[in-house]
Amino acid sequence: MGDFDLAAFYDTISHELLLKTLFPQTTNEDLDWVRKCLRTWSSDQADSGHGLIPQTGKFAIKRAHSVQDAMGMLPSISDPQHEAGAERIEGQQARTAFRSAIGGRPYRVTDKTRLRYVLFRAEPDAELLTLVVRLIPRHPEHTDAFFTYLGRFGYRKPIERLCQALVETNPYPYARGEAWHVLARYRRESRAAVFSDPGDLTTRAIDIARENRQENFVERWGVCHFLCVSDDVAG
User: Which of helix, strand or coil describes residue 102?
Assistant: First the structure.
């Protein structure tokens, strides 16, 4: 299984070249929308070369022992970014650093670099988790960092509720896809609501899996993982 972190290359893409490539195939209105997206999702000015996503370990080769293992590996961009022995931040230090990266009411990210630095290194912490759960719906541009941090926790009811809300209402397929992977993991957790009664989630997942839209590919990864685990649990 080759696991490639395409997100780590995002900030190195030339915005000017991208717009020139799109120009003959679209309208000025579409280009204005693309420019707005690029400004929103970029860590710095175009072509700055500064990436907020760690620029090490952009790929890894892993062994998948089953279809379920492979489906779980496909969208992961967190594991390759952090090699063994990476620095960790614990307790009060992590909370202090994280709080210094957010502000306002409701909370918004004010220091993107510091926020991501903490999320990729912080140990599981209940207070930090509460803040992360509040921020995720408002900052889809940091989905990878947020879900890397959530992946360090075992089962948590606030995480389950968050992911259920994301797959139902979040407008970004990438964020929904990550949420589906968490729900797939929780399908094996006896304490989770989705373990005993996945409810409409299975129907929703089947409908999404049948779609053939390119922009929905990442979400389809997530729902296929969810369905593979559900099938295994149902036995």
Answer: strand
Q: What tokens appear for 28 in the block?
A: 């000025």
User: What pLDDT, on a 0 to 100 scale, did the predictor assign at position 168?
Assistant: 94
Work out the average pLDDT over 173-200: 93
Note the residue count of the chain. 235
- Helical (H) or strand (E) element with 59: strand 59-61
CA distances 106 to 5, 137, 175, Å, are: 31, 12, 20
Check residue 184 and report its DSSP letter.
H
User: How far is the CA of 32 from the CAs of 23, 38, 215, in angstroms?
Assistant: 11, 10, 19
Helix%, strand%, coil% for the chain, nearest 5: 60, 5, 35
Beta bridge partners of 102: 109
Overall pTM > 0.70? no
Least confident segment among 54-63, 197-206, 212-221: 54-63
6/109 Cα distance (integer angstroms): 23
The whole-angstrom separation of Cα 150 and Cα 119 is 9
